Amino acid sequence: MILDKLKAEQRFEDEIFKSTIEIQEQALKNVSWELHDNIGQLLSTAVMQINIMGTTIDEKTSESLQDVRKLVGDSLQEIRSLSKTLNHEVIQNVGLEKSIQVELKRFEKLNFLTPVLTVKGDEVYIDPKDEIILYRIIQEFFSNTIKHAEASRLEVILDYTPEALLITIKDDGVGFDMQSVQSNSGLLNMRSRASLLKASLDYTSSPGKGVSLSLSYPIQHKD
Fold first, then answer.
1. Stated pTM of the model
2. Per-residue model confidence (pLDDT) at position 94
3. Whether 108 and 193 share a structural domain
């Protein structure tokens, strides 16, 4: 019994380490997208404004200067936001709900789809180590939606109850035949991680009807 418990604890710690590394890797991908789509565009516009100022010697020069200053300020804000996403401890520092909000706002800003987050009940304390694994499950779903679903809407519901945190995620994408993806590595990873937390996970889809994930994480599941 003691050996089994030690093995279970080791598997849990290994999964936390693995999930943390994967979150870092996803953050780096996010940075590359945002550097290209957001900061790159802002700086390109700033260069255009500077070029215009170089050939303008009237009152518009002052107005253009103010525009450039604002663009530079916006760029600095973007850089600060990106530096936060690079911090692999962001989940532990800001919590699960805030981390989900940050990811959904990124999707909205990049015009991938329309995200909706609904929170029910009173937020409860969750072990930061568990939050890392929960977030990685959610991030796996998000990644699949962005890559494959061709969805226009992504809905996330966090429902805090006295016994459990109920997480529901669904998209309105193309869906797929569940029989053909039972051995899908992403789905297996989500189920494996949920089992480490003693959480139940249900994953459903059908062609043309999107994908839905329901996860029940017991608030009091440790001795």
1. 0.64
2. 74
3. yes
